[in-house]
Amino acid sequence: MQIPRHLAIIMDGNGRWAEKRRLPRILGHRKGVESVQRIVDDCLDLGIGHLTLYAFSSENWGRPRDEVDALMGLLGNFLKKELSQLQERGIRLVAIGELDRLPEATVKILKDIIAKTEHNTKMVLNLALSYGSRNELTRAMQSLARDVAEGKLRPDDLSEQDIDARLDTHDIPDPDLLIRTSGEMRVSNFLLWQIAYTELYFTETLWPDFSRDELTQALQAYSNRQRRFGLTGAQLDGTADSDGEGRH
Ligand code: IPE
Ligand code: IPE
Ligand code: MG
Question: Could you say which architecture CATH assigns to the domain 6-132+175-223?
Fold first, then answer.
C-alpha cells in the first residue's frame, strides 16, 4: 500500500451524525474529537508524515453563536489535553488559518504547544483553524503587493515559489491525498492552491464514524491511482520511446 507523504482531511458530518440520533449537534462534534484522536494515532502508525485536519473554516464563524462557542470550547479542551500525547508520540503540532480570530486563551495554548513540539520528528499534525483558502491567498497577495510597493520584488520576477512562500502552508508539502467524509463532493474553501495535483477521495461515512478501516480503504484507492501530473502514462512507466516536447 502506498502511504501518502501528506494526507489532508475535511472532517465533515458531525452535525448530521448527531441529528440522525436526535442529539444536539455539539455531541456530534464531541464524538468527532474522538475520531481525531484515533486518526492521529492511525496515521502515525502508518508512517504518514503530515496530517492536515480541517477543523474550523473561516465560514464556520457564521454558524449560530452557541455552536461556535461550543466548538471553541471543544478545541480549547482538546488542546489542553493534547500536549502530553503529542510529546509522548513525537508529533509536532502546527496550525494554519487566521489564528488570531480564535479566543485569546486558545491562541495562547496553541502557540505554546507549537513551540514545545517544534523539534518532534515522527509526524506533523497540522490543524486548519479559522482557515479559508481565499483568505489565505488574499493575505499572501497583500504580502506580495507590499514587497512590490517597497521595491523588494519586481512584478515580472514573481514566481509560483514566491506565492507558495507566503501561504500558511509554506513549510508543508502539498497534500498527496485529500479525504472528505459525509458524502459532500466539494472542497469548501480548503487548500485551493495546494491541491492542484492532489488525489481526491470522498466517502459517505460521517466523520464520527470514520475508522481505521475506512482510512485503509482510502489508502488502497490512493495506491491504485496513477498520478500523472500532466504527463502520459507511458512516460511515467518508462515505456515512452523518448521524452521531451515536439514529438508526434
Ligand atoms: C464538520 O461537521 C465540523 C465543522 C464544520 C466544524 P459539520 O458540523 O459541518 O457537520 P454537518 O455537515 O452539519 O453534518
Ligand atoms: C467544511 O465543512 C469545513 C470543515 C470541515 C471544518 P462545512 O460543513 O463547513 O462545509 P459546507 O458548508 O458543507 O460546504
Ligand atoms: Mg458540514
Answer: 3-Layer(aba) Sandwich (3.40)
